[in-house]
Amino acid sequence: GATSDETTIPGILQKIFELNNPTTQKIQVINAAFFGANSTTELDLVKQKIIHYEPDLIIAFDGLNDLKGDFPVEKMKNNWRTMCEFGKKNNFDVIIAIPPVSGAGNKIASNWESQNLEKLSHTSIAPSYHLVKDALEDLDKKCTATIDLTNVFDNESGTIYLDLTHFADAGNALVAEQLFQSLLPVMYEKIGK
Questions:
Q1: pLDDT category, 184, cuts 50, 70, 90?
Q2: What is the value of pTM for the model shown?
Q3: What percent of the chain has pLDDT over 90?
């Protein structure tokens, strides 16, 4: 749903770091997302390609495609756990973040969302999204951190969602800002090491 690379979540996060970097180090945000990714394909990508970039931190923005693809939640949880263990073994942090989904949080729908998303409600994953949230809670400190973004749009009255799981630039900005706020403790801890 982004109008450009700069208005994707990673693009906005990069801008936020450029303006508010809490470290003296240059921070580079790399967008490794791809269409239809799920926890299995993301784990493979990390192990086979991303590891060669020597990342300091990976954020897996995950859960939707596993649930939409009717993959077992236990497999998703195991993939997340394996990615976090792989990060520890290879000296990088892993944060698992689950995105907001229309109907799973408490956002009041805008007029456009009410008119257009109701037509898609039969395909909503919101009723079973608690499975993703439960899987996130079960990571037992295996990961550097976990972030539940389900309610990040709760105070927004304007149009955010383009469909049930994708959002426009305004939504990307809100998610990027929340990710930045959640990353600050991790970054300060790294600076102290």
A1: confident
A2: 0.91
A3: 62
pLDDT of residue 26: 84
d(CA 62, CA 134): 13
Cα–Cα nearest to 38, from 8, 67, 74, 78: 67
Residue type, 90: N
pLDDT digits (tens, 9 = 90+) for 88-99: 999 999 999 999
Q: What is the 3-state secondary structure (H, E, C) of the chain?
A: CCCCHHHCHHHHHHHHHHHHCCCCCCCCCCCCCCCCCCHHHHHHHHHHCHHHHCCCEEEEECCHHHHHCCCCHHHHHHHHHHHHHHHHHCCCEEEEEECCCCCCCCCCCCHHHHHHHHHHHHHCCHHHCHHHHHHHHCCCCCCCEEEECCCCCCCCCCCCECCCCCECHHHHHHHHHHHHHHHHHHHHHHHHC
